[in-house]
Amino acid sequence: MSEISTEPLVMPIANEADIVAARQRGRTMAIELGFAGCDGTLIATAISEVARNILLYAQRGEIILCCVELGGRRGLSIEARDSGPGIPDLRKALTDGYSTSRGLGLGLPGSRRLMDEFAIESEVGRGTNVTMTKWVR
Amino acid sequence: MQVPILKQGPVLIATVQDALTDADLHRLRDDLLQRVGTHRSLGVVLDVTALDVLDSFAARMLRTISHAVRMRGATTVIVGIQPGVAFAMVQLGLRLDGVDTALDLEDGLNMLARTIRSADPTSTTNLAGLAGLAELEWIDR
Ligand SMILES: Nc1ncnc2c1ncn2[C@@H]1O[C@H](COP(=O)(O)OP(=O)(O)O)[C@@H](O)[C@H]1O
Ligand SMILES: [Mg+2]
After folding, report:
1. Residues ≥6 apart with Cβ < 8 Å to B43
2. How far apart are the C-alpha atoms of A39 and A45, rounded to whole Å?
3. Could you report the per-residue pLDDT of B85-139, keeping only the tens digit for each?
């Protein structure tokens, strides 16, 4: 089995090309970790959504990709963090179709469905932190 | 990365070659809407086989392109959505309402040929026999 780096990979998000780079890197890491191609696509899609949110609402931030192991299971964890405006009502933000930017309002609730684990912390005026993990099946 | 657009009779074929940024998608939309008029096209095939991710922004843009092209009098068929991409779109909650899709370029052209013929039964359009790309006329790049 090939060696898997456990060093977290930090990818800055400050423009559209960074979104593409982050999701492509995420997919590559997923495949290296042993995810099926289909799961790599699910992961890349979720990364695209949270990276897009960083750019749209906070202008800049970062995506941190990290291999995780727990109880013999392997997974890929993705953290999206920014020091932007924060989210006043998380319950609303996680509702399908809710958007303050006339978007589709599917980024957060959809990413939650795409991944196995999903957590979000946000404080108005301080920023937002989304952490999500998918496990190799 | 610009998306090349080919003209085959009354149809435009736009083939995505690589990952698209938001700016690329905006440009594709503008180019297609423009060219449907320039070439008096009746149909557009948008081939996304090469796309490995279709997030909510991209999906919405495909829907916008399809609806706007219709307002210009032409029909759009999206072809080549890959299995993983299709699954991810459904999980995300995306729907391509009012957008025609087909498995691949060949099926998409067949679909358009039928649409064009049913709109104008005297039309002799036959897109099904699209064999050599040599017949295609490059209209950009
Ligand atoms: N990183 C973020 N910083 C601030 N607000 C955010 C962030 N991510 C999401 N939001 C808020 O949550 C809402 C829902 O996000 P999302 O589900 O991605 O839908 P959309 O981006 O289409 O509006 C957004 O409209 C926005 O108000
Ligand atoms: Mg979003």
Report:
1. B10, B11, B12, B74, B75, B76, B77, B112, B115, B116
2. 10
3. 999 999 999 989 899 999 999 999 999 998 888 888 887 666 655 433 334 444 4
3-state secondary structure (DSSP) of residue A70: strand
User: Which residue is it, tokens 């898997």?
Assistant: A4
- How many independent structural domains does chain B possess? 1
| Ramachandran angles phi, psi of B58, nearest 5° | -65, -40
- Residue-number span of the structural domain to which B95 is assigned: 5-140
Substitution target in B26, B62, B89, B91 with the highest count of A β-carbons within 10 Å is B91
pLDDT higher than threshold 60 for residue A47: yes
- Residue A3 is assigned to a structural domain of this protein: no
Question: Can you give the pTM of this predicted structure?
Answer: 0.92
Alpha-helical regions (H) of chain A: 16-33, 37-53, 90-93, 107-114
Q: What are phi and psi of A96, to 5 degrees?
A: -55, 130
State the ipTM, two decimals. 0.91
CATH of residue A111: 3.30.565.10
Q: Is A13 in the pocket of ligand 1 (CB under 6 A)?
A: no
Task: Compute the nearest-CA separation of B94 from chain A (Å).
Answer: 8
Domain assignment of residue A86, yes or no: yes
The nearest CA of chain A is from the CA of B98 a distance in Å of 16
| Burial of B38 per CB tally in 10 Å (0-12, 13-18, 19+) | exposed
For residue B69, give the CATH number of its domain: 3.30.750.24
Identity of the residue in A17, A23, A106 whose CB atom sits nearest the CB atom of B56 = A106
Give the integer Cα–Cα distance in Å for B6 and B13.
Answer: 5
Confirm or reject contact between B22 and chain A (CB < 8 A).
yes
Which atom of ligand 1 is least distant from the CA of B56?
Answer: 22
